[in-house]
Each structure stands twice: as C-alpha cells, then as structure tokens.
C-alpha cells in the first residue's frame, strides 16, 4: 500500500496529523500545538497553539488558538513526546514577567545579526539577506 503513495516532502507529515508538535519559525518563535492539516507546500494548521518564550531555566506561554503557518517560515517541526514532556527541568513563570526579558534578548540578537551581516557583506563578499543573489 505504501508504494501507492507518491513520495513528496510533505507526504512524510501524514503520521504527524493529530499529534502535539513543536514548530520553530524563521523569526525564532516557538509554537506548540496539535497538527490538524497541511498541504503540499508544508503550510500547517495548528490547533490549541501556545507560543512559548524562554529565558534561562524559565518559560512563559501565550495562548494563540488556531494558527496557520506558511511552510516557508518553518525551520523545524517535531513531535512532542507526551511521556517525557512533564519531566523537562524548566519552570513556568507568568508571561508578563518573562516577555520583557525575552524581547530584550530578541533585540540584542537582532543587533548582533545585523552587525554580522554587515561584516559578511563588506569584508567577505556575501550578499545581504533578501538582496541580489539571495534567490532560491
């Protein structure tokens, strides 16, 4: 029967439907939710989605509900092992406590990436992201 299903990149997601998944996006966001649907472009529909913010050994969560993710923004997709999930040694904290610290970390990372990009462009001859030569 498996030989009747043509191999495609998104075809391997069949086993992941209706399971709790972690999705890491290009902008660094981490989303947890139940994968309900996908298409040939790896666009995803997550239900009961939670966005999680990390700082050190702490994390905060924001409920997002149903979330549609464009496939080109997905960096990583992985199934959550429900048996091991509760054993992770991280402490939940209120979202309003961790979000300002997370935002500060994000802005610092953005500045570092801009400086690195500038050096790569001016000294090493790399193209800028989204610039000429950065096509698929």
UniProtKB/TrEMBL annotation:
Gene Ontology annotations of biological process type: deadenylation-dependent decapping of nuclear-transcribed mRNA; mRNA processing; RNA splicing
Subcellular location: Cytoplasm; Cytoplasm, P-body
Keyword Cytoplasm: yes
Any single GO CC term annotated in Swiss-Prot or TrEMBL for this entry: ribonucleoprotein complex
Residues covered by the Sm domain: 8-83
UniProt-listed InterPro entries: Lsm1, LSM_dom_sf, PTHR15588, Sm, Sm_dom_euk/arc
Main location: cytoplasm
Gene Ontology molecular function, alphabetical: mRNA binding
Keyword RNA-binding on entry: yes
Keywords: Cytoplasm, mRNA processing, mRNA splicing, Phosphoprotein, Ribonucleoprotein, RNA-binding
Family statement drawn from the similarity comment of this UniProt entry: Belongs to the snRNP Sm proteins family.
Quaternary structure and interacting proteins, as annotated: Interacts with SLBP; interaction with SLBP occurs when histone mRNA is being rapidly degraded during the S phase. LSm subunits form a heteromer with a donut shape. Component of the heptameric LSM1-LSM7 complex that forms a seven-membered ring structure with a donut shape.
Annotated PANTHER family: LSM1, U6 SNRNA-ASSOCIATED SM-LIKE PROTEIN LSM1
Biological role stated in the UniProt entry: Component of the cytoplasmic LSM1-LSM7 complex which is involved in mRNA degradation. Plays a role in the degradation of histone mRNAs, the only eukaryotic mRNAs that are not polyadenylated. Probably also part of an LSm subunits-containing complex involved in the general process of mRNA degradation.
Name this polypeptide is given: U6 snRNA-associated Sm-like protein LSm1
